[in-house]
Amino acid sequence: MPLILAPQGETMTVVRVAAESKIKRHLSDMGVTLGADITLLTGSAGNTVVNVGGMRIALDVNIARSIIVCKKSAA
């Protein structure tokens, strides 16, 4: 599911980033990589705020739509 549809406050796992390579590189530099844990903190019609690797990151809604996540598997 796209990150913007994830339940707020629940830790999810990044399974795909469907964006152009420049944006993928930028997200990767911020810790948004395949397999990374990501938590949606707040989301609205504008920006989305997430927690990745202990850092809060604000994302444009279009970029948040391009991040595909799934529920974190219990290990």
What can you see in these coordinates?
- The protein has a five-stranded antiparallel beta sheet with strand order 4-3-2-1-5.
- It has helices at residues 21-29, 61-66, and strands at 11-17, 37-43, 47-52, 55-60, 67-71.
- It is globular, with a radius of gyration of 11 Å.
- The chain has one domain (3-71): SH3 type barrels (Roll).
- It contains two helices and five strands.
- It is α+β, with helices and mostly antiparallel strands.
Taking the sheet with the most strands, its summary is:
5 strands, antiparallel
Annotation field: number of helices? 2
Helix content: 10-25%
Mean pLDDT: 92
Using only CA atoms, what is the Rg? 11 Å
Order of helices and strands: EHEEEHE
User: What's the CATH architecture name?
Assistant: Roll
Spatial order of the strands in the main sheet?
A: 4-3-2-1-5
- CATH homologous superfamily - what is it? Ferrous iron transport protein A (FeoA)
Percentage of residues in strands: 35-45%
CATH topology: SH3 type barrels
What distance separates the N and C termini?
21 Å
Which keywords apply here?
single chain; 75 residues; alpha+beta; SH3 type barrels; 5-stranded antiparallel beta sheet; 2 helices; 20% helix; globular
What's the gist of this structure?
With 75 residues, the protein is of the alpha+beta class. The protein is 20% helix and 41% strand.
